[in-house]
Amino acid sequence: MWRKAWWETRSRVVISGLLLVASLLIEVFVVKEGTGPGTGYDWFLKYAKLAAVLAPLVAVTLAGSGLNSQTHWGLTQGMHPSTVFLLSMPISRRRALFTRAATGAIFTALYILLSLGLFSLMLPMLGRQGVEWSQFLSAIAFISLGSFAAFGFATFLATFLDEQMAGGGAIGFICGGLGAGALLDWSNVHFHPMSWLIGEMFIRTGKVVWPLVLLMFAAGAACLVASAVIVEKKEY
Amino acid sequence: MDFRLNPNSGVPIYLQLMDQIKHGIETGALQPGDQLPGIRKLAETVVMNPNTVSKAYRELEHEGYIEVRHGAGAFISAKFHSDEVHDRMEKVRPLIEKAVAAAVKSGLTQEEIRRLMEAELLKVEGSRS
Amino acid sequence: MTDLAIEIDGLRKSFGAARALDGLNISVPRGSLAGFAGLNGAGKTTTLRILMGMAKPDAGSARMLGLDATDPRQNLEIRRRTAFVPEKKTLFPYMNVADAIAFTRSFYPKWRGDLEKKYLDAFELGYTQRLPALSKGALTKLHLLLALSRGAELILMDEPTDGLDPLGVEVFLQALVGLAAEEGVTVLFSSHRLNEMEQVVDYLCAIHKGRGLMNAPLDDLKASCRRVVMVFTADTERMAGEFSNIGTVRRDGRTLTVLANGEVDAVVEKARRFEARSVDVQVLSLKEMFLELVKGDAK
Asked: Domain C4-209, what fold?
């Protein structure tokens, strides 16, 4: 079952791997050519912002494929033959869903770790200051949070939408969040849906907007639970 | 021996198989002592249900045409002398032909004729026991 | 341990306004090779789906191997001991034959490696063939391989001969017959090929418009079902009603055709009373039997 899940997400992983490499290269280039002082951390933050946008996208991609690579659970093509075959196996629906979701989550986590980790390692090599552990970890934590929420949302959408639509829907949501964030940023309101700002605010002001953190976590969790329930009740 | 069975003809397949085995015995294609294929083997060769083969073999054994030796298989029984049966059948055939022709002419259906004959045979069996 | 491998009672299932199953009663004894006949849309696939736990019935009960198929946990146990061949045969497009086998095998500890090799040969499949590249017939054969090698007690197949050429059908039927010879394995397969079905099954279930049509050992059906064709001197409109409680009636001007199950004498008797010009009692093939029942019902 695990093997199968890996197989399904294979192409997506390759894509996200490419994204990872691409984003690293871009940032490296930017850092090298960048003038001005700025601590390593500033650069790290810049990269983290990029990663924070990309990671949820990766999560969404993997979520979309993890559950929906053959529109398994989507209603529009609800009776896909591979799904029927899988359901005839002695595996509970919950377990099938879980295996797939877990695979997607693992890869997303890997992406986050690798992208941020590699970048942090490269900073000193490019003649900039390194990044401290606490900063590194907090960045990871908050990006993971954002990805988790995105993953949950995409999973939820995938239970009743076509693969493409679910991915598109989740991506649209993220972009909407970004756009809203940009607007709010302008008006200097301390409310931002995107987690990296939470991270940044934490570093700068030492304050974490806990309600928002809990909200994102809860929303993501709720989406996943809802997906599980929908999948279990579904008929073929 | 090749068996040609028609599963769609309406005649029960096990009867068809029995008839063909009996025919084989009468014509000499199957000699006393010859071994018939195992149930599973025959079922797979002819592509028919093993229960059907099993039923045919049981009936044939019951009628004395074959012997089923435990663990060894089914063998043509030595009791029947094919020539003798053949001769007897040839003698009785014209009598049966006449009787059936008369019955058909009188307007009875095949089913009714068959029932008449079965009733007669039952009478004979009844008087024997 | 129950005698029945499958036990369906009063099963009802509607999809919106469409009533797929309307009080279905079907039972299949353990160890039988059973055929499941029915027109397109009669409810065969819906029944199989409910048995495999993919859909829930609105009413009625469905039991397999003595367990309740409508209860998710029991259904999981059922699926451990049951193999299923679905109607639409396409499978994971990114796998090859070896992958598909490995995937399925991972779920079944009782996998029969010997059967796997046997069918791989018999069906002429290769481990490295990619699934999307397989022809429809080859894909069906792969499904059969996966179903038959599982070491399952019960095998359900939805149109397993769909897409197979005559040789493929022959090889499939041979595999079935070989399996039937093994103690304790029950097989139920739906098919439109009634001629082939008649060749190998020992038990028959038929469904029509969501209800049971036939449910008996094939030998019994063939022994008791007869088609009685009666020609009368007058139009048969009034007379048709006389026969409709004994069997299924079809009317064609002066000819009445009745499919009687075990009541042949009564039919012939009535025909004589109504002064039929001719009465013909015919034995039937399974296909003819089924068509008579279905056509008669339509009227």
From this structure: Rossmann fold (3.40.50)
- Cβ-Cβ contacts under 8 Å between B and C: the total is 65
- pLDDT of res. A209: 62
Whether B39 and C180 lie within 8 Å, measured CB to CB:
no
CATH topology of domain C221-298: Alpha-Beta Plaits (3.30.70)
Domain with CATH 3.30.70.250 in chain C: 221-298
- Range of the structural domain that residue A90 is part of: 2-233
What ipTM was estimated for this complex?
Answer: 0.82
CB pairs under 8 A between A and C: 60
Q: How many domains are there within chain A?
A: 1
B–C contact: 3+ Cβ pairs < 8 A = yes
Kindly write down the DSSP assignment for every residue of chain A, as one continuous string.
-HHHHHHHHHHHHHHHHHHHHHHHHHHHHHHHH--S---HHHHHHHHHHHHHHHHHHHHHHHHHHHHHTT-SS-STTTT-HHHHHHHTSS--HHHHHHHHHHHHHHHHHHHHHHHHHHHHHHHHHTTS----HHHHHHHHHHHHHHHHHHHHHHHHHHTTS-HHHHHHHHHHHHHHHHHHHHHHHHTT-S--SSHHHHHHHHHHHS---HHHHHHHHHHHHHHHHHHHHHHHH---
Best residue in B4, B49, B113 for a mutation probing chain C (most C CBs within 10 Å): B49
| pTM for the structure as a whole | 0.78
At C37 the pLDDT is 96
User: Tens of pLDDT along C66-109?
Assistant: 999 999 999 999 999 999 999 888 887 777 899 889 888 888 98
